[in-house]
């Protein structure tokens, strides 16, 4: 066994191409499938992952280079994990070596044998037994939780569950018990959460229950922290990997159970480079290991409910809140049209007349979004020393700036996107471009403060709260105040400890937070997001609103939700207003699935997106034409695919690149894959990327259509 077949981290086509290297005599016993090595590739030295070890190869030995070094003398991945990486490369049309690059943290792949020396790193044994489990003070399970746990424990291997529990129903406690059972059976566990920085509380709960067993993974960690987490799992010191989607690649052995918390969350989909969906990938990984898989959510995705419907997953339901006296909050709808016509938003306030017309005054803009009923409820909560969350899914002061003379809107110079006004500047939320409000309108030349601000953002709401409730302490949670994970944790802790009365924020406030003192949730503009050109927009909106509403009344005090909308008759709001729990949500998603089935959209059909992007519009258009011709040929032959496009992407220009796209629908996954493989092959073999200065990007099971 003297030849190693390795994947190289480079954009290589065909994507599964491996390269042969000779194993030097001193490493013959050590290099195995899964070994991390260093090789010379072309003129550079690079890390590489060994996939196969062979006796011989058709290439004459003297033409082969030797492996330069071995980084760790045990393989980092086992057979199942190597198959997993290959499967991802194949399914997502992405070079295998670059899949490996996603899978192995840079702290490991760029380390040398010396820095990674785990004999030194390791103070105890390799693969020590599982440590104590700290379950003495664990809360007792209610009957529904018990039933869910029993189903998990009684199931054989390789079983898929959907843990469908309303907000506050105690899913985490069930996860902890499932993991306890897994560890007691001598196996390891993987827990995925959408954005781990947003849920520091969850990490604490896991670490407390399983002291010394939890290794945390996410992109916000420093290199040394990542290396420690990874080495802890690799050497078997810790048996639970907890993290965002990248934790999927933790080098766990003997994986017994995978938990995907908040499985509906769209941040499980990586939207750049390897465009994998961590939930779908987790299903593949569980299959390879024969592990049990639990998808958990209060608002499951249509995809997961479809798995239940097809008997591919078993549904475990938690229909009640875990805290005995806690109930789902009472929901009041406020019709903003009425609020607008009656100007009743000014009740009880003596706002000077000129302030009303001064659109630059953010507190007035924000003012409108505090309807009289909402203000009343905020006042009541403040009087009772309770906390409120106000949710608005837009950061900044306003939606955009418009010239009051000619209607010109300030756009980002590099993207086909409006600039969002913030207090001090105008900001592109896509590329980060910053500028100040121009003094003169570039379109009509108006010089006298031409720009007025329209719409509202979280900064304006914060200002409005300061204006109306000067005694209230306000915190704001959005990408501006919490760009770093430390500042984020700081804000969450401050609010939980009761150091503030009101938390204003974007969808970051909707994540699984547990704030027992929150009795009021205000959803300021529930319509936002309904008009998005996306077949999932109703589903996403319903999930977001139910999740935000679910932050209210999680302890003994009853919770209330004020939902402000211009379309109170919209079916999405019935779902929230009626508090119809699990059955109501199931019915809502059933209707969604039926609608999508008729239009050939997931989960009943499969979807892929092909995007062409480049700096020159003409080339992008021409490339789109070529790809379009290929696609229509296939569509005529098979009749099993439907092609939409080419059309300019909804974001037609991003970071100076023009974008055109196709959506390809098929009820047959294989046909869809064959189609894409054929298109890609033509593209790659004719080297059209170089020739046309245009990139072709494939996104399988896309989540964002923008
Ligand atoms: Zn103008
Ligand atoms: Zn931009």
Give a description of the structure.
This protein has 706 residues and is α/β, with parallel strands linked by helices. It folds into five domains: 3-104, PriA, 3(prime) DNA-binding domain (GIY-YIG endonuclease, 3-Layer(aba) Sandwich); 119-318, Rossmann fold; 330-396 and 458-578, Rossmann fold; 399-454, no CATH class; 606-700, Alpha-Beta Plaits, CATH 3.30.70.360. Helices cover 33% and strands 21% of the residues. The two termini are 49 Å apart. The structure holds zinc ion (2 copies). One zinc ion is lined by residues 412, 414-415, 417, 428, 430-431, 433.
Features:
single chain; 706 residues; alpha/beta; GIY-YIG endonuclease; Rossmann fold; seven-stranded parallel sheet; six-stranded parallel sheet; 22 helices; 33% helix; 21% strand; binds zinc ion
Give the arrangement of secondary structure elements.
Elements: E1 3-7, E2 19-22, E3 36-41, E4 44-54, E5 69-70, H1 79-92, H2 96-103, H3 106-109, H4 118-121, H5 143-154, E6 160-165, H6 171-184, E7 188-192, H7 200-209, E8 214-217, H8 223-234, E9 240-243, E10 255-260, H9 278-289, E11 292-297, H10 302-309, E12 314-318, E13 330-335, H11 336-342, H12 353-357, H13 362-368, H14 372-383, E14 387-391, E15 400-403, E16 420-421, E17 426-427, E18 434-435, E19 451-454, H15 458-468, E20 474-477, H16 485-496, E21 502-505, E22 518-523, H17 537-549, E23 560-565, H18 571-577, H19 581-598, E24 606-614, H20 617-638, E25 641-654, E26 657-666, H21 669-685, H22 688-692, E27 695-700
Parallel strand pairs: 6-11, 6-12, 7-9, 7-10, 8-9, 10-11, 13-23, 14-21, 14-22, 20-21, 22-23
Antiparallel strand pairs: 1-2, 1-4, 3-4, 3-5, 15-19, 16-17, 17-18, 24-26, 24-27, 25-26
Helix pairs in contact: 1-2, 1-9, 5-6, 13-15, 17-18, 20-21
């Amino acid at each position: 066994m003297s030849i190693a077949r390795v994947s190289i981290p480079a954009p290589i086509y065909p994507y599964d191409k491996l390269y042969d290297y000779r194993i030097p005599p001193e490493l013959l016993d050590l290099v195995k499938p899964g070994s991390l090595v260093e090789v010379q590739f072309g003129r550079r030295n690079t890390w590489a992952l060994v996939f196969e070890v062979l006796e011989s190869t058709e290439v004459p030995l003297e033409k082969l280079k030797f492996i330069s070094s071995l980084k760790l003398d045990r393989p980092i991945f086992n057979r199942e994990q190597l198959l997993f990486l290959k499967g991802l490369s194949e399914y997502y049309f992405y070079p295998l070596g670059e899949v490996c690059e996603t899978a192995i943290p840079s702290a490991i792949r760029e380390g040398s044998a010396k820095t990674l020396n785990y004999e030194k790193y390791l103070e105890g044994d390799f693969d020590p037994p599982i440590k104590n489990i700290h379950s003495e003070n664990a809360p007792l399970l209610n009957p529904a939780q018990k039933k869910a746990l029993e189903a998990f424990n009684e199931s054989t291997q390789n079983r898929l569950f959907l843990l469908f529990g309303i907000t506050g129903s105690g899913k985490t406690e069930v996860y902890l018990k499932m993991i306890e059972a897994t560890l007691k059976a001598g196996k390891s566990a993987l827990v995925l959460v959408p954005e781990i920085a947003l849920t520091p509380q969850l990490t604490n709960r896991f670490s407390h229950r399983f002291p010394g067993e939890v290794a945390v993974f996410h992109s916000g960690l420093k290199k040394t922290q990542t290396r420690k987490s990874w080495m802890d799992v690799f050497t078997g010191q810790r048996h639970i990997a907890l993290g965002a989607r990248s934790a999927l690649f933790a080098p766990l052995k003997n994986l017994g159970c995978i938990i995907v918390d908040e499985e509906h969350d769209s941040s499980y989909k990586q939207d750049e480079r390897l465009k994998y969906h961590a939930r779908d990938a987790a299903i593949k990984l569980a299959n390879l290991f024969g592990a049990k898989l639990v998808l958990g959510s209060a608002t499951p995705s249509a995809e997961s409910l479809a798995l239940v419907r097809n008997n591919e997953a078993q549904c475990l339901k938690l229909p009640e809140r875990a805290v005995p006296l806690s109930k789902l909050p009472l929901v009041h709808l406020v019709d903003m049209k009425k609020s607008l016509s009656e100007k009743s938003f000014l009740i009880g306030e003596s706002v000077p007349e000129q302030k009303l017309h001064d659109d630059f005054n953010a507190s007035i803009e924000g003012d409108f979004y505090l309807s009289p009923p909402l203000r009343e409820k905020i006042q009541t909560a403040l009087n009772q020393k309770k906390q409120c969350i106000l949710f608005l899914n837009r950061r900044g002061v306003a939606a955009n700036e418009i010239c009051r003379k000619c209607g010109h809107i300030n756009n980002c110079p590099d993207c086909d996107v409006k600039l969002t006004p913030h207090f001090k500047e105008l900001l592109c939320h896509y590329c980060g471009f910053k500028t100040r409000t121009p003094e003169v309108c570039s379109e009509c030349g108006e010089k006298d403060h031409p720009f007025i601000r329209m719409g509202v953002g979280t900064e304006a709401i914060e200002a409005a709260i300061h204006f109306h409730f000067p005694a209230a302490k306000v915190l704001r949670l959005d990408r501006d105040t919490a760009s770093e994970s430390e500042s984020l944790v700081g804000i969450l802790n401050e609010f939980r400890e009761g150091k503030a009365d009101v938390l204003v924020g974007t969808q970051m406030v909707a994540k699984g937070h547990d704030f027992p003192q929150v009795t009021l949730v205000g959803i300021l503009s529930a319509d936002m997001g309904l008009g998005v050109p996306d077949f999932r927009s109703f589903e996403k909106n319903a999930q977001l609103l139910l999740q935000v509403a679910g932050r209210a009344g999680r302890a003994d005090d009853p919770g209330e939700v004020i939902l402000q909308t211009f379309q109170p008759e919209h079916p999405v709001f019935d779902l929230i207003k009626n508090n119809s729990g699990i059955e109501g949500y199931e019915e809502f998603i059933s209707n969604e699935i039926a609608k999508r089935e008729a239009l050939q959209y997931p989960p009943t059909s499969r979807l892929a997106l092909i995007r062409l992007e480049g700096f020159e519009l003409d080339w992008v258009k021409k490339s789109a034409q070529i790809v379009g011709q290929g696609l229509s040929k296939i569509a005529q032959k098979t009749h099993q695919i439907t092609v939409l496009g080419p059309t300019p992407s909804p974001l037609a220009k991003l970071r100076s690149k023009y974008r055109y796209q196709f959506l390809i629908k098929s009820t047959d996954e294989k046909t869809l894959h064959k189609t894409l493989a054929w298109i890609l092959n033509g593209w790659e073999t004719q080297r059209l990327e170089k020739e046309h200065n245009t990139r072709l990007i494939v996104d399988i099971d896309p989540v964002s259509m923008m």
